[in-house]
Amino acid sequence: MCGITGYLGNRQAKEVLFSGLRRLEYRGYDSAGICVVSPTEEMGCVRVVGNLDVMEDALESAELPGTIGIGHTRWATHGAPTVENAHPHLDCDGKIAVVHNGIIENFVELKHRLQSGGHRFRSQTDSETIAHLIEEQYRGDLAEALRRSLDQLEGAYAIVAVHRDEPDVIVAARRDSPLVLGTGDGEHFLASAIPAYLDMTKRFVFLEDNELLAINRDGYTITGPDGPVSPRPVEVDWDIDAAEKGGYEDFMLKEIYEQPRAVEDTLADKFDSSGEIEVEELCLDPEGARALRRIVVVACGTSFHAGLLAKYLFERWASLPVEIEIASEFRYRNLVVTEDDLVVAVSQSGETMDTLAGVREARRRGARVIAVVNVVGSQMTREADGVIYTHAGPEVGVAATKTFTTQMAAMYVLAMYLGRLRGEVTDEKYRMIVSELQALPRKMEEVLAERDAVIACAEKYQHCHDFLFMGRSVGYPIAMEGALKLKEISYLHAEGYPAGEMKHGPIALLDKDVPVVAITPRNSVYDKMISNIQETKARGAPVVAVATRGDPEIEEICDDVLWVPETTEMLYPVLTVIPLQLLAYQVAKLRGCNVDQPRNLAKTVTVE
Ligand code: AGP
Question: Which of 26, 373, 378, 591 is deepest in the core (most CB within 10 A)?
């Protein structure tokens, strides 16, 4: 969950590296650094504690001439955020500079061996070990020295390195951490993620695990465990605006308002010309679908809430039993997973280590794995048997919003597809659901137009310190998601609960200062939700309902109502989550929180 950049070309590296880091700041922002190899073959380095604003100030007064260099913005895993622990890390003589994203699991023993060989360490990080390993292995060829060093590393890494004595070479390698090469005219860019250099090029190559990249002024070569690898260039259709704020105050707000388009884009490539669902990457035929005995869902955070919704969908539309597990707990279950199971891994980044570990565990046990992922070429897409892509575009805000609603859209498609293959969904029901799916983007726009009502709500309850969110059936995952959104960007305490569970304990928390958000669209559990609202009101707690527009009853008994248009029962979650996203955003803004970079969090958690 750090951001890495590298550059070799004809521009001053300092500016190019910083520009890339600026667009990777969401990956980590507690310290940063840049190293440039100067024409006089001196290594110039600037490292700071703090986010990239601090780095920008430091660079203004730093002389860093040169057209080759590396950069890093950090989210601390080993060692506190200090200048010594900031990347790039140098070898003993300051000739080799390295940036790293990941965790070197055997760094302690390596460090001790290197220290006993006379190496002097400056930091507490695992990453610095790499610089000293390369130094130990260096015989005049940086690529070869890195290759020999990699053999000794255990754990996850995306590494970029330069050597003062080879001012026209950058080397890189990856295992379990993302790294992408951007190719320009006579220049090459390295980054942890595509948005870093979308303004410089649209042509990218994704490095695969255990591949080593060597770049020089004439081009680049990729070498895998079995020798040279042919490059696999892809043209990325994300324009740079998609990675910028586009006029909104924050990335998060922009991404909340991008949701109708994101859902539309996600649905667009899931149907064939006859209107039948077509998901080629799914590697499932009718026979395979009928042979399925169970679905196991693994995910984390917001993606877990999308998986929780999917549980209701797979049961309802495909008549399949579903196990759902928080990915980090998955391995502790003695879950007997067999080839008759379909494991669905949900991860917008495709790099979350907990979920990747779940995928590997499932595959080790013989299950087929489908990944629901937003980032093309991410690690999970290369480890799963099949992939369903969401097309949310880059999500820069740490809090997941558009990637969540697109994950739900993908789950509707997957559940309906399985239901059709298994003969569980009639043509009439299929047509109705698909019609409602296609209408969702327009209905989402209607919800987004109601932001003023949400702002009024946020102003009314901004001084409260505890919130409860409750829902039933497919409203329950949305209650969980609403609570997570509020707590992760406003730092207020919030909990999501099945509404029926309130009387088993949480209702003791209620008083006039504990607002309760009730997900109460007109559906099969509406009457029971009304009862829960009345129980809540009887304890003096204010109730904010998310309800179907035109419902006269709800307005009578609730303190505030946030309206959504009518849709079919199982599709309400895509609409009812939007007011909760906006509520979390508005409360956080009123509290002066940094909604795009909440404290203690990073966009992608690539450590376990
Ligand atoms: C959600 O707002 C958080 N950013 C976090 O819970 C996130 O959903 C979780 O870390 C999973 O990330 P992934 O979808 O990239 O796997």
Answer: 373
pLDDT digits (tens, 9 = 90+) for 134-192: 999 999 999 999 999 999 999 889 999 999 999 999 999 999 888 999 999 999 999 99
Widest CA span in the chain: 79
Residue 505 clears pLDDT 60, i.e. is over it:
yes
Q: Which positions are annotated as active-site residues?
A: 2, 603
Q: What are phi and psi of 159, to 5 degrees?
A: -120, 140
Residue 404, both tokens: 């969540």
Spatial distance between the Cα atoms of 200 and 299, rounded to a whole number of angstroms: 34
Q: Which residues contact 587 (CB under 8 A, 6 or more apart)?
A: 458, 461, 462, 486, 490, 492
What is the average pLDDT value for the chain, to the nearest integer? 93
Contact 80, 118 (CB under 8 A): no
**Per-residue 3-state assignment (H helix, E strand, C coil) for 386-439:** EEEECCCCCCCCCCCCHHHHHHHHHHHHHHHHHHHHCCCCCHHHHHHHHHHHHH
Percent of the chain at pLDDT > 70 equals 96
Distance from C-alpha of 70 to C-alpha of 88, rounded to nearest angstrom: 7
The tally of CA atoms less than 13 A away on the side-chain side of residue 461 is 32
Contacts of 243 (CB under 8 A, 6+ apart): 23, 194, 195, 198, 394, 396
- Give the pair of three-digit tokens for residue 119: 């190496």
Model pLDDT for residues 564-588, shown as the tens digit of each residue = 999 999 999 999 999 999 999 999 9
Number of helices (H), then strands (E), belonging to the chain: the values are 19, 25
Ligand 1: distance of its center to the CA of 42 in Å? 41
pLDDT of res. 247: 64
Q: What is the DSSP letter of 30?
A: S
CA dist., res. 399 & res. 595, Å (int): 8
Centre of ligand 1 from the C-alpha of residue 401, in Å: 10
- Helix (H) or strand (E) holding 358, with range, is helix 353-364
Closest CA to 534 of 512, 552, 558: 558
Give 277's DSSP letter.
Answer: B
User: Distance between CA 576 and CA 588 in Å, rounded?
Assistant: 19
Q: Give every CB contact of residue 192 below 8 A, 6+ residues apart in sequence.
A: 2, 3, 4, 5, 24, 27, 101, 158, 177, 178, 179, 180
Indicate which residue's Cα is closest to atom 6 of ligand 1.
Answer: 301
- Residue whose CA is at the smallest distance from ligand 1 atom 9: 301
Distance, CA 303 to ligand 1 centroid (Å)? 6
DSSP state of 195: G
In 3D, which of 174, 402, 302 has the Cα closest to residue 605?
302
CA distance 532 to 545: 11
Q: Which residues, 6 or more positions from 473, have their beta carbon under 8 angstroms from its beta carbon?
A: 312, 523, 524, 525, 569
Q: What is the pairing mode between strands 341-347 and 180-183?
A: unpaired
Cβ < 6 A, ligand 1 pocket: 300-303, 347-349, 352, 355, 398-400, 488, 604-605
Q: Fill in the amino acid letter for 194.
A: I
CA 347 / ligand 1 centre spacing (Å): 7
Q: Whose CA is nearest to atom 4 of ligand 1?
A: 399
